[in-house]
Amino acid sequence: MPATNVWAKTITKSQGWLTDVAVELGGAEPHEAASALRCVLHALRDRLTPDEAVDLAGQMPLLIKGVFFDGWVPSKTPIRTRGLDEFLDLVERPLAGRSFDLGAEAVTRAVFRVLTDRVSAGEIRDVRGTLPEEVAALWPVEVASR
């Protein structure tokens, strides 16, 4: 496959992810959806073991995978969050000052819904299994029954 086709394909897939996040956020602007996706993916990535982070990223389009791994320091992960408030703080801090007013929990739920739709049920179960119960509860209910 020519390189231009590879890039066109990943751009299209990545735009689909961003569109889904924007819809889940109630019609957010593209830059808002990108910020939300980035903040939640980084909070989640840093909470996972390096192996689990790589497994999750394996199901992302190349550009989303780049966002996911941007700034990652595997030797400093997983960070230990003991509960929901600590996890949401990881999402909220980089969102501070952004142009939309949704809280960290709403943003996290929106991104988790997109991940549920775009990543295999088995991988979502693996990721949820590494999270504190309160954080895992932010995933859509249907994940548990898949």
How does this model look, in words?
With 146 residues, the protein is mainly α. It has a single domain (3-145), classed as Globin-like. The chain has 9 helices and no strands. The chain has helices at 3-24, 30-47, 50-57, 62-69, 84-95, 104-118, 121-130, 133-136, 141-145. The mean pLDDT is 91.
- What CATH first level would be assigned? Mainly Alpha
The strand count comes to 0
The CATH topology name reads Globin-like
Mean model confidence by pLDDT: 91
Unreliable stretches, pLDDT < 50, 5 or more residues? none
How would you characterize the largest beta sheet?
A: none
The 3D shape can be described as: globular
Task: Assess the beta-strand content as a share of residues.
Answer: under 5%
Distance between the termini: 34 Å
CATH architecture term: Orthogonal Bundle
What share of residues is helical? Answer: 55-70%
What value does the Rg take, in angstroms?
Answer: 15 Å
- Oligomeric description of these chains: single chain
Query: Helix tally?
Result: 9
Structural class label = mainly alpha
Number of domain modules? 1
CATH H-level superfamily: Uncharacterized conserved protein DUF2267
Order of helices and strands: HHHHHHHHH
